[in-house]
Design brief:
With about 150 residues, the chain is mainly alpha-helical. Helix content is about 50%, strand content about 10%. A three-stranded antiparallel beta sheet has the order 3-5-4. A hairpin with a 2-residue loop joins strand 1 and strand 2.
Length: about 150
Amino acid sequence: MKILIGEVIVPGRRLARLYSLCKSIYRGYNQRGHMRHEIEKHVPLPHATFHILMAVSDVDRHGYAIIQEVAARTNGQIKLSAGTLYRSIQRMLEQGLIVETSERPAPELDDERRRYYRITPLGTAVARAETTRLSNLVRLARVHGFVPEKA
């Protein structure tokens, strides 16, 4: 089956892929298949959530390791309490931003009570959207003289 689209004849199989791509673009899907509105409903992110996503972006971590990583990345300026951390983690699990992973380190290096968390593709897309939002805010602040120019 061949169909004429504009001035181009498209074979049936290619048409199906083209139609699917156009439908995805129209509905607002990004390249990883996440719907734009699903990403945007999480933005802006609470500060704790953004820092937790950054902490688990490169390696699976358990709760206390997340607290340590956030403190290290912020030079001690942000110290997550256990209550804030675990409330945030519970909400992030429900939202699909992170998952609890079953992969564990060697038993001699691990405590069996620990739960390890990993960022999901949706979590990565949301963190990128938040980063873009923050970058745009800084750019706007710089234009209005609120951010000193780099030396």
